[in-house]
Structure formats: C-alpha cells, structure tokens
Amino acid sequence: MDGEGGEVDDQLISFVDFKSTALSLGGIEPPDYVDGRAFLGDFLDLPKRSYIHAAADRLDAQYDTIRAVRDSRYKYLRNYNIDRTYYLELPYREQMTIMQELLRLRDAGQLNEIQAQWFRAQKAPEELFDTENDPHELKNLAMDPHFQGKLAELRAEMDIWLNEIDDKGFIPEVELIEEFWPGGIQPITLDPVVSHRNGMVHVSSATSGRQYRLSTTN
After folding, report:
1. Secondary structure (DSSP) of 130-151
2. For residue 212, what pLDDT is reported?
3. What is the mean pLDDT of residues 91-95?
4. Which residue of 22, 101, 145, 152 has the fewest CB atoms within a 10 Å radius of its CB?
5. pLDDT: is 204 or 209 the higher one?
6. pTM for this structure?
C-alpha cells in the first residue's frame, strides 16, 4: 500500500504485528525475538499468513482461559473455563453509566435474546463463527454438521500453535511467579559493558532479557 485513499489490504493482521511493522517502516530489520510479523515496510514478511491467533486470560482481578484462531472468514474459540460466564464483574467497568443500565435491564429481565447472550451462565467448550455472515459472532456453528470440516481444520491449527508457543496460560500464577523470581528474590541486571568501536558506542549486558533506558539529570 502506498498510503493513497481507497486502498484495501485484506491480509490477516494481529496486534503483536505492530512492533515489527514499526521497525520495518523505519528501515530496521525486526530481531528474531520480537513477536509478530511486519505487514508493511522494507522487511515485509512473506508469504502472508493463513491464520492469526489470540488469547484471553486475566482481566483485572478476574481470570479466564480462552484461545482463538481464525482464517480470513472463520473464527474458532476454545473455552477452557466453561463455568466462567462471558460477563465478568469488573468494578471499574461497573462505574460506567451504560454498564449500570445493562445490569439494570438484566436484573429486570428486559434484555432481548441477543443482548442476554453476554450474561449466559456457562460458555460452550468450543465456538465457531462465520465472520462474513455473522460479524458480531452471535451464532455458534460448532455443533452444525455442515461446518465440521472447518472446525477440525481450526482445531488442528490451534493445537499446532499452542505447542509452538509453549503456552504458559495453564500454569497457576503462583507457580509462574516462583519461576520468574525463584524464592521471591527479584533478579538483578548485571552491570552493562560500554565499549567504543568504529565511532559507535556499544552497550551490552550478560543478563538475559535486559533492557536499557537513556535519561538525563538536571
């Protein structure tokens, strides 16, 4: 795309692609450890992908475990906590006037069938939506015999993805904290090494995952 109006790009793009794309647009090759693919710029990733993936876990003080995959038309969701409602109580959100009105209508039994879907007591283990004919994802096709082929395809793609990323979402947070900070001790970044080579300043550290920040003092 050259930035002119009226152009449409129908490739599958995920939020994690923005960092790689920003680097690519700046003429910088995205490092291997950066998630996502560049969809514009000098380092455009080809071929274009056939699927994108998504996950939902913690939401403020609430939690859930949902994984999703979609192609250009169909979206598949796998709900691991079917006893968790679609609607999760969030104090911040419930301060909003529109949220208070939705809850009032729910309690009064005045929501229509579509509006009430959000407040269902349980989730289906699997959901499949035709985003072309059902853009608001209201009709679950997972049990429809006409869509079992597509369901099987997206199931398989999800399993491949979960295996590739070594999904940590199924590990209790208490165990993850212990893994990140063994014994509750916060890791300390080793002192950086600054060197000058060929008129350039190079900063490095032996600590894995290190970052740096430039700051000035008054």
Report:
1. ETTT-TT--S--TT-GGGHHHH
2. 67
3. 93
4. 145
5. 204
6. 0.79
The answer to whether the CB of 105 falls within 8 A of the CB of 99 is no
Token pair of 41 as six digits: 């710029």
As a whole number of angstroms, the distance between CA 83 and CA 122 comes to 5
Residue count (the chain): 218
Which burial class, exposed, middle or buried, applies to 154 when counting CB atoms under 10 A from its CB (0-12, 13-18, 19+)?
A: buried
DSSP label of 197:
E
- What's the pLDDT score for residue 3? 63
Token pair listed for 186: 């916060």
Neighbour order of strands in the sheet with 126-130 = 52-56, 66-70, 74-79, 126-130
Domains, the chain, with CATH or none = 1-49 (no CATH), 50-182 (3.30.1120.10)
